[in-house]
């Protein structure tokens, strides 16, 4: 924590001590979202790119000077972060680009980018003296919390509130990790409010990324890593799917931090992509009006958030970086699952590839130029949502165990 | 290939040039399995632990001197290998041990250890001049082949034969990767024979690990890595689940290689664990009689192989290392999914945790002593087989979005 100065309200600018369980701005009636402020000059004095390169810890904790945790707090044992970056010519071609970097965050230990935030939550909960951590989640925040808590080896408990539409893969995963799972018969928003009430009532640590300022600090490691993996030569654009708004806000915060300490000299323009059936942040971005709650009509469950809690940070990220937003249909999302899978061998969940679908649209529209350098992040593993994967991929060819019959099918040209 | 000497038949000792598409021993009527022989003295001269430590490539290709590939052959872009090793006190306690190392190979890019063999197959296929690679598989070999082929960016095709019982997650995954999938209405054995016929008929490259000597060389990287991650201080025991026999054979080969070049001074005793409902190799090990085909009655589909093709190499691995074999029930496997998940945050598929279930049994029986140092490998990701995960984990607590009702449920002590 030696580089953390304060928590600052992004609405009114009020400052607070960086207590581990300080979530929202009291002056703004507990509506204002807080942001962690670092002493960048001090970090610059103590930490260089060479120091970073010499660090053998290939996980999010290699960025300790830029993380709001005490060095001595025990960390989950799961290896979170340092996910691979691939440079795919064929995918670039499919998207209408000359070059694309794909970062596969579905290879985090529980299968999504959310491990970055959950690992942080487990550390901060301990610093707050809590042994139970709770959240509401469409799935990935939940399973990542459950997994990271489990890896503490019985020292902590996780209580998870999921909306009933959460895919079976995600719910099963958190039951396997031993979390207490509350399946709320209602929407994501209703699950959120129930968790909020329960957290206050039983004094649990709150891992709801929309209000806990430390979680965005975990998520920002995705752009710290990407920058390092690209040798600190930043692309023109960086693309994320957007649900609650926390991930793209985190990505921006990481880039902002790196620029402040001089590791990078430009921040890529951020592209936020929402699903047509649930795009409140895109609407607010375009109309420049306050956010209006929408319905949640998309199969990309991880970004189906009708009332996003971190939209202000998300909008700020996009505007500050001179970026843009775009919506895509469920059909475009399903098509992109196959395009990414066939060209790169990476299987992303629907929300995981949504950013790529939006990117394709923006290239078609001429917003992103063919020669622009672009990076995009697969935020979750496709194995988490097989039902939609199946919709995207179709059915296998069924044959009896007989070579002649296979040859006949083959010759009919049905599939081969 | 500069360290590869020959292919040697493990039955009759006949030697062959290491052609990329030489699969079986012609002298033994194409029944004898071949093994890759290296010039260990030359490797010792050229390669040291220090060289290895200085290598920044954190994938299976860091072990190039011990791999049977040409340096210049293009490799799949997926980052295969360097999966994490965890040291869990709580899991050790559950197993009755003082210490256990868990290697999570479910974090390979397509979710299983098989990526190691498939990456090898993609390289060897190119060396053989083939553009189509085919296999029959219960799932993981298939999806790993499909993913690794896809990551070549359209340069190659995969044709996959799966038995109809393959879990939806695995089949969906390979359709997403764009493979041609043939779902064979029959057993694993029938799928195998159909693939064998088709491969010969259409002259595809054969990625059936039981007969292709190079694939075991890919799989052996799991023990090369484990050794390096444990600083070349080897445990007393190393545990794997066993289906076709190739994985444990590969693990042994890696250890044997490391001992020959002086990187390690002892080979751990290998423990092979099969499911009670499909344990032909355990039976042959115990009776010392030739292998008899069995039925395939287990939910651990990845090791449900009634007629394993590589049982001789597997038995050799276990006997040469002075190891042992044991069987476990499906119930013990399901229980172990939860035990591993809750204590470590690692979600393994049924076959992925079968080794741990067997280990627990051997500790109970006194074969493995409490103070022995043990490592075991999670061979596949639990997200691949949600149906069985759900059987193991049970159901979440369902509540309406109402705090009072939640509290009532809570107070009734049903779940919290």
TrEMBL record, chains A, B:
Reaction catalysed by this enzyme: O-phospho-L-homoserine + H2O = L-threonine + phosphate
Keyword Nucleotide-binding: no
Domain Tryptophan synthase beta chain-like PALP residues, every copy: 78-380
Function text: Catalyzes the gamma-elimination of phosphate from L-phosphohomoserine and the beta-addition of water to produce L-threonine.
Similarity remark: Belongs to the threonine synthase family.
Keyword Lyase: yes
InterPro entries on file: Ser/Thr_Dehydratase (IPR050147), Thr_synthase-like (IPR004450), Thr_Synthase_bac/arc (IPR026260), TrpB-like_PALP (IPR001926), TrpB-like_PALP_sf (IPR036052)
Residues the record lists as binding pyridoxal 5'-phosphate: 140, 379
The protein's name: Threonine synthase
């Amino acid at each position: 924590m030696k580089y953390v100065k304060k928590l600052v309200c992004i609405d009114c600018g009020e400052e607070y001590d960086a207590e581990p369980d300080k979530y929202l701005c009291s002056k703004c009636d507990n509506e204002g979202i807080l942001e962690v402020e670092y002493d960048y000059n001090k970090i610059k004095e103590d930490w260089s790119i060479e120091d970073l390169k010499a660090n053998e810890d290939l996980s999010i904790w290699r960025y300790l000077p830029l993380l709001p945790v005490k060095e001595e707090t025990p960390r989950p044992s799961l290896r979170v972060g340092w996910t691979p970056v691939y440079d795919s010519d064929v995918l670039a071609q499919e998207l209408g680009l000359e070059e694309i970097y794909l970062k596969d965050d579905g290879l985090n230990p529980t299968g999504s980018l959310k491990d970055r935030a959950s690992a942080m939550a487990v550390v901060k909960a301990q610093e707050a003296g809590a042994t139970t951590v709770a959240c509401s989640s469409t799935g990935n925040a939940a399973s990542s919390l459950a997994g990271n808590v489990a890896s503490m080896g019985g020292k902590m408990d996780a209580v998870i509130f999921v909306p009933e539409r959460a895919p079976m893969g995600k719910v099963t995963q958190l039951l396997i990790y031993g979390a207490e799972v509350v399946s709320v018969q209602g929407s994501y928003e209703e699950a959120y409010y129930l968790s909020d009430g329960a957290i206050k009532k039983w004094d649990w640590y709150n891992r709801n990324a929309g209000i806990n300022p430390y979680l965005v600090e975990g998520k920002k490691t995705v752009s710290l890593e990407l920058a390092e993996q690209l040798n600190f030569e930043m692309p023109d654009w960086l693309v994320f799917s957007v649900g609650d708004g926390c991930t793209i806000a985190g990505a921006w915060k990481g880039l902002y931090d790196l620029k402040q300490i001089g590791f990078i000299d430009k921040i890529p323009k951020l592209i936020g992509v929402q699903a047509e059936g649930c795009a409140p942040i895109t609407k607010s971005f375009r109309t420049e009006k306050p956010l209006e709650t929408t319905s949640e009509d998309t199969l990309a469950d991880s970004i189906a958030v009708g009332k996003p809690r971190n939209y202000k940070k998300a909008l700020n990220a996009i505007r500050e970086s001179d970026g843009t937003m775009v919506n895509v249909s469920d059909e475009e999302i399903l098509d992109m699952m196959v395009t990414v899978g066939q060209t790169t061998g990476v299987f992303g969940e629907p929300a995981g590839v949504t950013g790529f679908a939006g990117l394709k649209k923006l290239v078609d529209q001429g917003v992103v130029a063919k020669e622009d350098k672009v990076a995009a992040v697969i935020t979750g593993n496709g194995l988490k949502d097989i039902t939609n994967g199946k919709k995207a991929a179709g059915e296998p060819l069924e044959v009896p165990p007989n070579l002649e019959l296979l040859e006949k099918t083959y010759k009919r040209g049905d599939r081969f």
